[in-house]
Here is the input.
Amino acid sequence: MAGCFALSVHLLGRSGGSHQPLLAFIYGAGGALAWLTALPIIRVAAFGRQSETVLAAWFLFLGMGTIAVTAGLFALQYRIFYAQWHAPFLSRVWFLQQIFTSASALYQFAVLGLRHFLPFAFLLLFVVSLAMSRRNR
Here is the structure.
């Protein structure tokens, strides 16, 4: 995913801003952690199923897992940056700031971050899903 981010930024001319190494790390870590979390779910969902169902399970759970984990890491980094201006820990205002900071980060990722998955990560997801579904036969 870090490679897909780099290709998206450089080949397609999409601006990654001044934090490209950190964003590449977030995308790479998101892909790696998504693989680890999606693998057991895929095994349960695809156990004893037809090959089309196995392909769909790989495509759905690995794709959605990658997006979800990467968005979560993006929100965590966003929260770490803004923590210096937040209220004292575990106060009522602190909880509200956590909720709205996380919601803002997830919205920003949905608007600006998802574009870095297209088209390269989508193609890679299809190839990996196809290869892994054939391996599971």
